[in-house]
Amino acid sequence: MANLKIIRVRIASVKSTRQITSAMKMVSAAKLRKAQDKILRLRPYAHKLHEILVGLSQSLAETRVDNVYGRITSPEKILLVVITSNKGLCGAFNSNVIKEARRVVSEKYFDQFSKGNVTILPVGKKGYDFFRKQNINMLPECNHLLNDLTFENVVVVAESIMNRFVAGEYDKVEIIYNQFKNAAVQNLTDEVFLPVETVRDGNTKESVPADYIYEPSREEIVKELIPKSLKIQFYKAVLDSFVAEHGARMTAMHKATDNATEMIRDLTLQYNKARQASITNQILEVVSGAEALKG
To answer: 34, CA 20 to 30 Å: which among 123, 211, 248, 286?
Structure first.
């Protein structure tokens, strides 16, 4: 049997760990509720705005109005925006995003990668720490976005990406992140940010209804609506990942707390058995000593 003192120390250690995981679970739950309200309010607006954007881009293509954000060329220079978290203890949240980014590079853009034309923009410390050790081009990290997640801060990064695309530094920009579904489920998502697509799901086209009247002109809308919609889409992706992170951490800490409780129960049983065996041995020694004295 294990030493009673060692078992007592292990029980105390696991109890301390359970207190930490339980506290982290409650903190993540509180942050999740607050952030979840934001993403649920933003999604309908972002979806409708993107629907108008896709239809407008299609209309511009048909009327041959120049749309700098819809420039479709053979993708030679690729930018992948990989959104992870700044902190760990959230299960497979970060590793899933990193694995997907590596899969995209190896399967979709291997030729471009071999030429050195694939660049990673890491949003989140975990992704930055991983990719800086790899032989791949990287832009400066944007870990500060998750520390103070506001639309104003995200817009600065979105505008930088859009300006690089317009300048021809990149032919295609994709965002890889975890999309929030519920506290226990996150959908791994890989979506095209630029160029603005006019066709989705094969041959299905999304377009604005024909009775829409553009005011002001289409040219003015290109300058105002399309950049605004792109900024909203980028903000939604970062916010989605932020909410999914807290959901994943809450679930992971819930499981860790349950595992700690089960371990404490097993250790307590082991301690009681060892203590009972020790007491039995002491009684046997007393009885044996008494019998020896009688003899």
So the answer is: 123
- Domain of residue 118 covers 21-252
* 3-state helix/strand/coil string of 186-214: EEEEEEEEECCCCEECCCEECCCCCCCCC
HSE-up of residue 27 (Cα within 13 Å, Cβ side): 11
pTM (predicted TM-score): 0.84
Tokens of 268: 């307590």
Query: Rounded to an integer, what distance in angstroms lies between the CA atom of residue 104 and that of residue 18?
Result: 38
User: Mean pLDDT of successive 10-residue segments in the chain (295 residues)?
Assistant: 82 95 93 90 87 70 67 86 94 95 94 93 94 91 89 94 93 95 90 76 46 67 81 94 94 94 94 88 84 78
Contact assessment for residue 235 and residue 161, using Cβ atoms and an 8 Å cutoff: no
174, 165 Cβ separation under 8 angstroms: no
**Annotated catalytic, 142?**
no
Q: Which entry of 32, 82, 90, 176 is annotated as an active-site residue? A: 90
| Cis status, amide bond into 227, omega within 30 of 0 | no
Is residue 172 in a domain? yes
Dihedral sign computed on CA atoms, order 235, 163, 193, 54 = positive
Classify residue 84: in a domain, yes or no: yes
The verdict on whether omega for the bond into residue 195 sits within 30 degrees of 0, i.e. cis, is yes
The CATH number assigned to the domain holding 220 equals: 3.40.1380.10
Task: Answer whether residue 225 is part of any domain.
Answer: yes
